[in-house]
Amino acid sequence: MPFEPKSSQTRQWIIETTAELFNKKGYAGTSISDLTTATGMTKGAIYGNFENKEDIAIAAFEYNLQARINIIRQELEKATSYRDKLLVYANVFRPSRKFPFPGGGCPMQNTGIEADDTHELLREKAAQALEQWRRMLENLVNKGIAAGEFRPGTPARRIATSIIALAEGGILLQGVSRKAKDLELALDTVEEIINGISV
């Protein structure tokens, strides 16, 4: 018999209430006690809306990811050129901009690192999100080439991969060093790459 949650509203409340917890503590580090404390619900009430902790963790990851995507999408809509759209990725993560990203840092990075050798389904979710991001960046580069904004022959996939690697690497450096300048330096390099392919 397929699992059916008791209430979509309650399910959404649990997701929203535990999303930051999972993003900060990870799947393994988040206990059922953490979940009951955060939600003010009993274990039975929580599992009346989710099959298991994995089910909640996946929903929380998707919620955090969508929150991040929504912020970036809003900034992309303000940009009027493909260059400016790419530059969103050099600016939106800057500590000085203080966008309301999910607490705990990048959900793709957090989930991907933790689940790398421990939880295949969560690793796959993070990998899919990263690939979706790379395809979107690659598409922006190709459209910019077609529009005459970027140099012909620009290797779109390599540029997209470099932007992600620098942004995510900068986020990691900042998280470990507690120095915002480390992330700023990585994002300055993203900006240099984008300026370098512009005509």
TrEMBL record:
GO MF terms, alphabetically ordered: DNA binding
Sequence ranges assigned to domain HTH tetR-type in this UniProt record: 8-68
Keyword terms: DNA-binding, Transcription, Transcription regulation
Highest taxon above the source species: Bacteria
Presence of the UniProt keyword Transport in the record: no
Keyword set includes Oxidoreductase: no
Portion annotated as DNA-binding: 31-50
InterPro entries xrefs: Homeodomain-like_sf, HTH_TetR, Tet_transcr_reg_TetR-rel_C_sf, TetR_C
A Pfam family this chain is assigned to: TetR_C_13
Name of the protein described by the UniProt record: TetR family transcriptional regulator
Organism lineage string: Bacteria, Pseudomonadati, Bacteroidota, Chitinophagia, Chitinophagales
